[in-house]
Each structure stands twice: as C-alpha cells, then as structure tokens.
Amino acid sequence: MKKSFITFITALSVPVLVLQGALTSMLSEHEYKDAIIESALSTQLPTTDSAISAEADNFDEQALQKVHEGHYEEAISITLAGLKKFPRDFTLQARLASLLGDCSEITPAPLKDRMVTRAKQLFDRLAQEVAEQPKATMYSFKNEYFFRFGMYREQYELGLSRVADYWGTDEWKRCKWGYYSQGVGASRYAKKLLEDGNASLATEYAQKALVSWAQYFTYSNDYYNAYVHYALALGILGYTEEMMRALHQSASLIKENLDYFEFKEVIDFIAGIKIYRPRTLKTTNPGYSHSQVYEREV
Q1: What are 156-212's pLDDT values in tens digits?
Q2: Which long-range contacts (CB under 8 A, 24 or more apart) does 153-158 make?
Q3: Which domains, ranges and CATH numbers included, belong to the chain?
Q4: Which of 176, 219, 245, 255 has the highest Cβ tally under 10 A?
Q5: End-to-end CA distance of the chain, in Å?
Q6: Residue 21, CB half-sphere, CA atoms under 13 Å: how many?
Q7: What is the pTM of this model?
C-alpha cells in the first residue's frame, strides 16, 4: 500500500470510512479502496434541503480537485466526510452519485454493478429535488445527469444556456463550465452519431466541440478530462496527430500513460472508424467504456 494514500486517508479521521480496521489489517491498496467504496454504498442519505454551507462547499471543492487529479477514491473519501457532517447537502450527494458512476468504470464486477445501481438511484432521486437548488447547483447537477443518462445533445444545449445565463454578469467566470458542458456533450454526441451512421451530423457536432473547447481552454487548461473529450472530437474529424498530442497532455496532468482507460477508449474508438490514418494508431480494445449510460425511471 502506498504510504501517501495511507497518510491521506488517516488525516481525514472519518469513522464512516472504517479506517481503523483497514489500517490495522494493512489491506492492499486495492482492498482499501474497495473498503471506501463499500462505505459509500452503505451510507444512507436523507432527502436534501436547500441550505447553503461554505464548509460543505469546501468539502466539494476538495473532492473536485481530486477528480481533476484522477484520484476518484480519494474524492469519494472527502465526499463521505462532508456528508457525515452535512448529510442533506445536495451538492455533496450529487458529487457522490457522480463519483460512484465514474469510479465504477475502473472497478470490476460485481462491485461495479452495485456502484452503477447506487449511482442511478441517487441521480433519479436528486432529479426530483434539484428544482429547490440555486441556479449554479442546478446546472452542475444537470450536466452530470445528462452525461450519465447518455443525453449528450441535451448536455451540449445545457452548456449553451449556462453561458447565456452568465455572460456579461458579475459571475461571468461560471461560463467556463458552460463551455465544458458544451464540449463534453458535443464530443459525445458526435461519437454517438458516428456509431449510428450519421457521419455528416457527427462532423458538425465534432466541430461544435472544438469551438467549445477553444473557449474553455481560455479559462482553464489543467483538467485532464477536458483534453480527453477534446481529443475525441479531434479524432472524429480525422486529426489523429493532434488527438494524440491532446491525450499526451491529458496523461501528463494525472501522471498516467496512454493505457489509462479513458485514453484507450478514445484511441480504440478512432482506430475503429474509417476516417483516420491507420498507421498512426496501434492499440487493442480493453473492453472499457467510460460513458456508462443509465436508463432513466419514467
């Protein structure tokens, strides 16, 4: 087990994570992370309220920073610590739903299936409660909701609305996440269109994605996931060399190589379509799919 990981978890001192037992047993890092996920799955959460807490927001910001670094289990630990103190906080509950979905993509069955089920349950319930939340919280939740349920065109359009809402106001910096919603939504929708055989519309949305990412990167260029979706749009348009540069940049931000599942998903998808130069890409399909799509309850 890596010393840095143990030090991080120990510093939280959160009983809900059952840290003492894990530490004394000296579990492997893999087993230890599974213990964190089990704790998340067993945590019972009440109906949210509309209270705003700077301390709760601080927990969420810390968790988001770990997401940006690609450390999803650590983000779950921080979120659970926040929920122990603020169990009704909407943002923290939504963060947990999102993290369980993201982390499930690197978790084998049967734990993976339980994580997907729990994330879906949380998303479905929170969708009924989001109307009581502030506008910024609503936008953040809907972005994750649309992504997880495969509603990529709606995610793109949400980003358009988000930018329009904040442009020219004192909160104009929030436009960054509007461009992020546009970029992810358009990139993923282009991929889906291409899979459905609509190459013309796929090209149009991939181009929309590049415009959105150009805007996003004027605000921030340190989030690895943005480069993943930027790379996807580039690949769909046939710019495979630029795609690989974007993936290398993404990998450098989280200190991973191109075997990391999100990078390989992009590479393998582009390797399977007809508009790239085959000699530039050599890869095998690892069987990963980051965009696990949930079925909504009607």
Answers
A1: 999 999 999 999 999 999 999 999 999 999 999 999 999 999 999 999 999 999 999
A2: 153/185, 153/189, 154/185, 155/181, 155/184, 155/185, 155/188, 155/189, 156/181, 156/182, 156/185, 156/186, 156/189, 156/205, 156/208, 156/212, 157/185, 158/185
A3: 1-133 (1.25.40), 134-298 (1.25.40)
A4: 176
A5: 44
A6: 8
A7: 0.80
